[in-house]
Structures
1.
Amino acid sequence: LKIEIQQPVLAANNRIADTLEAAFRQHGILAVNLISSPGAGKTTLLEQTIQQLKSCLPLAVIVGDVQTEKDAARLRRQGVPAVQITTQGACHLDAHMVQQVLPRLSLSGLRLLFIENVGNLVCPAAFRLGEGLRVCLLSVTEGHDKPSKYPAVFLAADVLVITKLDLLPYTDFDLGEAVTSAHKLNPRLEVFPLSAKTKEGFAAWVDFIYRRATE
Ligand SMILES: Nc1nc2c(ncn2[C@@H]2O[C@H](COP(=O)(O)OP(=O)(O)OP(=O)(O)O)[C@@H](O)[C@H]2O)c(=O)[nH]1
Ligand SMILES: [Mg+2]
């Protein structure tokens, strides 16, 4: 029964995601879908990435949360357009939600669109949003067992950003083990361990996004 209900929902989502993907491609926009558990550091990563890229790349953000405009307000302080989707309980963004808010952004001239998903390490994995790049974040305070326990997100990602590297000495997080188990699931994952506090590892991530958005 579960499969019978889910398949039409996902098929409908995929149809809209295909339309979004075509629109992003037509406008030369790299759309980046960021997925992680709550508090892994998505908005913080975006604030600092945007700070470094906004002068050389026209960019915008769509951000999903169950409630509040807090994250959009944080990102607007960077001087870029940021549209908040409040899902009112839904635990992930879907392509229809993104399609509905897209008219609030001017796609012409845009090169990069970040889509911060609702904090959740399970549900967002199943819903394509038309993105060209899917980024999964895992913070060192969550435990290195998360790739094997929540495989769908890691399987469906192109990039793994390991966040809060500055906190590594205070945890039992095994960086090697986390990367090995993520790569066992998905060998093509590009991995960027970094800290938004100390900026360790940050340049490699920003360079990567810049290259992908301009190639
Ligand atoms: N020490 C440390 N703290 C960080 C780092 N990145 C983010 N944080 C902190 O982690 C907390 C959550 O960060 P957010 O960026 O709001 O996390 P989020 O993933 O956007 O959270 P949701 O949108 O609620 O899912 C904040 O207190 C940040 O200051 C980091 O690199 N190091
Ligand atoms: Mg956030």
Note: The chain is about 40% helix and 20% strand.
2.
Amino acid sequence: VSTAIIPSAAELAAALASEVTESSIRSLDEIPTPALLLDVNAAAANVRLMAERADAAGVQLRPHAKCHRSAALARVQVAAGAVGQTCASVAEVEALALALGPVTEFSLLLATPTAGDVTARRIWRAAEGLPVIVAIDHIDRVSELVAACPDRGRRLGAVIDVDVVDTRTGVTSVVSALGIADEIANTDSIELLGVQGYAGALQHVPGRSTRRDATTRATDRLREVVEALRSAGHDVTIVTGGGTGTSGIDLQIGLLTELQPGSYLFMDRSYRDALGEDPEGQFIQSLTILSSVISSNQTSHVTIDAGLKSMATDSGPAEVLGHPGATYAFAGDEMGFVRDASLRRGDRVRLIPPHCDPTVDRYGMFWAVRGDEVLGTIPVTVRARA
Ligand SMILES: Cc1ncc(COP(=O)(O)O)c(C=O)c1O
């Protein structure tokens, strides 16, 4: 049952278009390459579809900002009902707090556990601009954050990060979770809001039933911690996790109170390959790389100006749009090969990036387009690697 009025895709596209800085460049042929293009209609449709699905399941959305690193895209997601953004790094929290704050209506979740005094001080400083929630997976992080708290009366939210797939981060036992919760309960400056369980290793598992079975097992581990915390008298208001690949399954299982998907906004090639026709794959590919053919002296291939510096190549090759059968191959930092008999020096091609997050990370801005129409630019807000 829908509880919210979600703006239409057209309204969200208009909101995104209103974020654009106009450029004197009005045609795809004039954009300096390599360039990152974002189709505003496709992105808006994706924002709307995920918002509708979450709303229908009674689950809140906290899209992952590490995917877009953009205040403009965060604002559009919030306009569609998101309760805030998920961040992967302190730098993302800092940049988005500056760009989006001061506000109290939505919050930033730092989903990656952090260590040390320097990050603790930076987190407190960022939290001056808007509410910040941190993921904690070690009891010592509580005292580190308390020691760095600049003044009495200020509070950070916290969720206990639970390792649900034996991988990167998170507590590995109920006992550890209870220990952290008790430690937080003894502080004035940190408020325990709930738990996080993110099954990163399951997001790209092909085959919906395989992905569903594995997600069900991972969720059972998170549920065990939720129940233990509640039995011990701790409030668990937020149960956060999930990504694009498991989104529909997470919504069906129903333990999560908020979902953290990122890539649905762009739907890169590796996600499309893994998800195919599954409901989680039904988002439109909105992100492309515009590249120029710079040399066509070989018979077997042409060389384009998009290589490692234009896209992350950890997830296989890019897809060449509009040239069925053409293949892309990595050819160095600045170049790639495209095998397609029809291409000549000076031609332009559009590529679907294999992996969106670390591709966006390579650019200072998106060129906002609507089909072939160029609207202008949208900055990538989080640029500092501090
Ligand atoms: C903590 C966390 N939540 C959610 C996501 C979901 O991202 P995506 O939807 O792009 O898979 C990620 C991605 O790595 C993540 O690290």
Note: The pocket of pyridoxal-5'-phosphate is lined by residues 64, 67, 86, 88, 111, 198, 200, 203, 243-245, 260-263 (CB under 6 Å).
